[in-house]
What we know:
The chain is of the alpha/beta class. Helix content is 38%, strand content 22%. The chain is globular, with a radius of gyration of 19 Å.
Amino acid sequence: xxxxxxxxxxxxxxxxxxxxxxxxxxxxxxxxxxxxxxxxxxxxxxxxxxxxxxxxxxxxxxxxxxxxxxxxxxxxxxxxxxxxxxxxxxxxxxxxxxxxxxxxxxxxxxxxxxxxxxxxxxxxxxxxxxxxxxxxxxxxxxxxxxxxxxxxxxxxxxxxxxxxxxxxxxxxxxxxxxxxxxxxxxxxxxxxxxxxxxxxxxxxxxxxxxxxxxxxxxxxxxxxxxxxxxxxxxxxxxxxxxxxxxxxxxxxxxxxxxxxxxxxxxxx
Length: 268
């Protein structure tokens, strides 16, 4: 883990941002986690190079929702709008971090959103990612979320396989629960590693004082739809998983985010 200190403490939490409502919800959640863990919050504003490439194609047209007017796409105007959006998001980040007393930083990342986004948060031990850019929903808006100095009432899920990375993200979730009264749901993903009974026994040993605030749930199905049903049924606000989990594979990442319906935090 590149940025972790010798004690394994989370020093930096990165969050992928654009100007969409879902992105701002993710910012509020990441800021609350950063405050809970006394970590720096890094906002990463995403400029999708594929979107810019498509905007340069002469046959594409743009339909403005507000006016229903159609026009050709203007790459220069799009870039100006992106810069303006980045300034707005930076101001929002500064205000949110200031309200919570969290150290913060901001940078613009440009790359292929679909193929390269996981590389945008390499310097952080925890990378919060939701549906942004061309993968954000056009109509459905998230429920309003305000940044909080406490995570009490938050339901944090952790996908646990028994791997070294899964041990790391379980410890992160436990720290959130112990220090800030978040409820914890441990999803036992036995198809990848050991059997469910072995995983369950091991997790129960790790929970300690968090047993009363925790639920252990075996993942019956191995596909994203089965996991999404579990996330929805238990009302999870955030799902934490390690960077080696197959759900983060390039072919399934955005499908996973769309199906889950809640942000994910990727532990490194």
